[in-house]
Write a structure and sequence with these properties.
The N and C termini lie far apart (59 Å). This protein is 69% helix and 0% strand. The N terminus and C terminus are likely disordered.
Length: 150
């Protein structure tokens, strides 16, 4: 009949399995397991960089399994640039920076869709330069800074 109001409506638009399939497609990974490895590795690294309301709001947009991976990390006191993020993750995993960059792009493109444009803009304002490209967005920060200084 009528929709009953829910106490905590879910904002997540996809399940964890759907997220893994989307990342598998984006990253052209041969298996679901490889996509899951990329998701868990990249979200753990992002969890070490993201703080504040943006961290909480992003976790609410993700499937539960992904949100737990993100929020299980203690944020680092030193925030890395986008390229520093990739290099740090390469060192931690022993993978080549090009592979880590590919994984990061595949995962964060899906995360960007789940977050939506408003939350993504807030996340990018919170993080140092270089993350927009990792999320599949144009890096406008330098242009905006020059325009503000003029």
């Amino acid at each position: 009949m009528y929709d009953q109001p829910r106490a905590n409506p879910s904002r997540t638009a996809m399940t964890f399995d759907q997220m893994l399939e989307r990342v598998r497609y984006e990253g052209a990974y041969p298996t679901r397991e490889r996509a899951e490895e990329a998701v868990r590795t990249v979200l753990a690294a992002l969890g070490r960089q993201l703080t504040g309301d943006e961290r909480v709001d992003l976790a609410q947009c993700l499937p539960v399994e992904a949100a737990l991976t993100l929020t299980a990390q203690i944020p680092d006191t030193q925030h890395l640039t986008g390229w520093g993020f990739v290099k740090d993750l390469a060192v931690r995993t022993g993978a080549a920076p090009a592979t880590v960059r590919w994984d990061t792009g595949a995962v964060l493109a899906v995360v960007a869709r789940l977050a939506g444009p408003d939350l993504l803009a807030r996340i990018l304002r919170r993080l140092p330069g270089g993350y927009a490209l990792l999320f599949g967005q144009a890096e406008l920060r330098q242009t905006q800074l020059r325009a503000a200084a003029a």
